[in-house]
Amino acid sequence: MAVARKIKTLLTVNILVFVGIIVFSVYCRLQDRSEGLVQTVRSTDRRVRSRHAKAGALADREAILERLDHLEEVVYNQLNGLAKPIGLVEGPGGLGQGGMAATLREDSQETESKYEEYGYNAQLSDRISLDRTIPDYRPKKCRQVTHTADLPQISVVFIFVNEALSVILRSVHSVVNRTPSRLLKEVILVDDNSDSAELKTSLDQYVNRRYPGLVKIVRNSRREGLIRARLQGWKAATAPVVGFFDAHVEFGTGWAEPALTRIQEDRRRIVLPAIDNIKYDTFEVQQYASAAHGYNWGLWCMYIIPPQDWLDRGDEAAPIRTPAMIGCSFVVDREYFGDIGLLDPGMEVYGGENIELGMRLLTSTNAPAAARFFHGVPGLPAGLSLHRAMQTRPLGGRTFVSTLSPFVSGLSEKLSDRSKGLNP
């Protein structure tokens, strides 16, 4: 009996232990499931809250955007009120957006007369917004480059005489819109004694109200010519770097930073932005291939194939060293420009500075592909003689031409004799 009782007790204990193990195992599983359920509930709650927060943020964003749109509309209406009285358009939209070709519904006698007066379709220009968008033709690598924050400021100088008002103002709008405000110190308009009435009061009133303190106008009391007008702009400039441009251009995105970077690296550089074309009749923007600048025996500047070492590098974003320059666009350190003697004030007709300045610097000019702007060229006069295109006195006639080729030494002596007659 005692043995049976012991066996019964052991069985009972084993059964209780076994049941306890099962109960404990079930409890653990329930606990795990409970924690998982709690985590699921919490996660669901967080998602719900996140959705509500996103919805709230989205609603706030929509409200902010709506207010900004309203503010933009108010500002645009106020600004457009400046352009409307002078028959022009500003703000987004309209003809010629994205640099696309634009046309008027029908030509008129006024269109033809403006063609003859300006050398381009001025009536169409008046219908194109001063703030139109243009394509970004910079190489991909240029768009990815970051520039330092301590770049020098620039004064942008535009030279004009009897240009269409809309073309001048589009030049101004584009440089202001596409130049960081911290870098653009001022815009200087040099009026070389224009005859047009709208380039007097209308221009003054517009820029003074639209860009107070930023845009300055310098007016020559007599017709000085392009070269001396540029020198007037240099005198008026106060930034450490000066950019000289014709007043019928439009600037591309990010044009200023690479140009200023090159000058910051070496103040002895003169930088020429890459030039694309604006068609004179439709104002369509056309991309030009990367090129250097050379000149022919008439001393007219022309595009030439970039140097072989540049082609061998295979880097289209690299600057191109070029022996000549296009006078309608160059950027230079202001003090250095004075140190090398500026431009020759004796040159009466445009074109000579393309060669003179390039020869002075002995191929030290740079043309970065990232600094792009778009240039519209009116009809060019033909038949200008060599001594009108460039005065040879400052370059020393014989030395200049014989340096180009020893086979023209006789011609160089004739040019030197002519220059003496032209420059007493």
UniProtKB/TrEMBL annotation:
Gene3D superfamilies (alphabetical): Spore Coat Polysaccharide Biosynthesis Protein SpsA, Chain A
Listed Pfam families: Glycos_transf_2
Domain Glycosyltransferase 2-like positions: 155-338
Entry superkingdom: Eukaryota
Transmembrane segments: 7-27
Keywords annotated in UniProt: Disulfide bond, Membrane, Transmembrane, Transmembrane helix
PANTHER family on file: N-ACETYLGALACTOSAMINYLTRANSFERASE, POLYPEPTIDE N-ACETYLGALACTOSAMINYLTRANSFERASE 9
This protein's name: Glycosyltransferase 2-like domain-containing protein
